[in-house]
Amino acid sequence: MTGADPRAGLAERQAELVAALVAGGPPPPGFAPAPLAATRAALLRKRAGEVARHWPLLAAGLGDRWTTTFAGWAARRPTAGSLRDGWDLARALRGERALPPVAAEELAVREARLRYDGLRAPRPRRLPAVGRAGGAVAVQIAGRVRLLRPAPRTPTLAGDGVPDAAGSALWISD
After folding, report:
1. Most buried residue, 85, 128, 137, 173, by CB count within 10 Å?
2. Entry pTM
């Protein structure tokens, strides 16, 4: 048979396109950069929405900054799944001391309930465990998790209006 198979290299071209869309790879040859960037941004917004469903307090704690914070963090990282993406972002924000108190409580509860090493899927803990994040402390005993100490909140004049783990919001009025 003479001539090249038109399907030769298709898998490589598809992998380049996927890397450009979800892992921050360079635009593959033959693709206009502007539509590719628009598609990448739309996929990051969709991914942020999925992560927010698994980590509602993390998203609420960041408020209007949620989508841009997530997109900045996730732009060069392929997804590991919504639960793990949120967990990895929360840990990164904790390391930067930028984790909102309500999200610290959510992370502490997750850390007490599940074992996650950053590589494999989270697994339920069998033994008693303690989760700590941003001053919040959660304890898991016999499969039940209790938040023992909420994360400290800095009072503001207007209040942040973000609910804590108990569902109440901190409002300070004059």
Report:
1. 85
2. 0.75
